[in-house]
Design goal:
By secondary structure, this protein is of the alpha/beta class. It is built from seven helices and six strands, in the order ββαααβαβαβαβα. Helix 4 packs across helix 5.
Length: 206
């Protein structure tokens, strides 16, 4: 098991914690991490685009002129794609872009990210994260003390003071252990976990 320093909100070392090898020293599977990121980005696509084909545009029920003898090319409808107000060729239609991912694959991808963050020295463990009041500058101070300029912070539960103190900071994102995002973990440089979050994660993913 790897021993990692535990720091307080002031940035001082207050102890160490042992991390489970099954979660924080797992085999790094980059292809699963990539797939999880692609799945996340695909789920963000709304898929509501729509254009009308020649069969859906109103009008154009009769031929604009007879088939032969006019000197013009034959035309069957004024709603063909080459006409103004005509339909669109291969028009986009509403669709779902979601990609399915096996729960075991997602679990392995999460373990891969945890392991990679630890190996690269980008994992920080806090003894606790609590505020007596809602103040954005309190969270800014904590991030400065622990030297996490761009961080993904994971806590247990939804502490109102912590949640509201973090919501206006563009360089960080707060999450609970039940809503972990592989995309966001990869997006932010530092992964900050509270001691309680580490225990909760190990219980679920060990």
């Amino acid at each position: 098991m790897a021993n990692v320093e535990v720091v307080n909100m002031g940035g001082q070392k207050v102890g160490t914690i042992e991390l489970a090898d099954s979660v924080f020293a797992a085999e790094v599977k980059q292809h699963l991490v990539h797939r999880a990121v692609v799945q996340h980005l695909a789920a963000l696509r709304r898929g509501t685009q729509k254009a009308k084909t020649r069969g859906e545009v109103s009008g154009g029920g009769r031929k604009p002129w007879r088939q032969k003898g006019t000197g013009h090319a034959r035309q069957g409808s004024t709603r063909a794609p080459q006409w103004r107000h005509g339909g669109v060729v291969f028009a986009p239609t509403p669709r779902c872009y979601k990609i399915k991912m096996n729960p075991k694959e997602k679990k392995a991808a999460l373990k891969s990210v945890f392991t990679e963050k630890l190996q690269n020295g980008n994992l920080i463990v806090l003894d606790e994260l609590t505020f007596g009041e809602i103040k954005t500058k309190n969270m800014v101070s904590v991030l400065k003390n622990i030297k996490a300029d761009k961080a993904y912070v994971v806590i247990v539960g939804n502490d109102k003071n912590v949640v509201l103190s973090c919501r206006n900071l563009p360089e960080m994102k707060l999450s609970s252990t039940g809503t972990l995002s592989i995309y966001d973990m990869m997006k932010y440089n530092k992964l900050v976990l509270t001691k309680d979050a580490v225990k909760a994660i190990e219980e679920v993913y060990a």
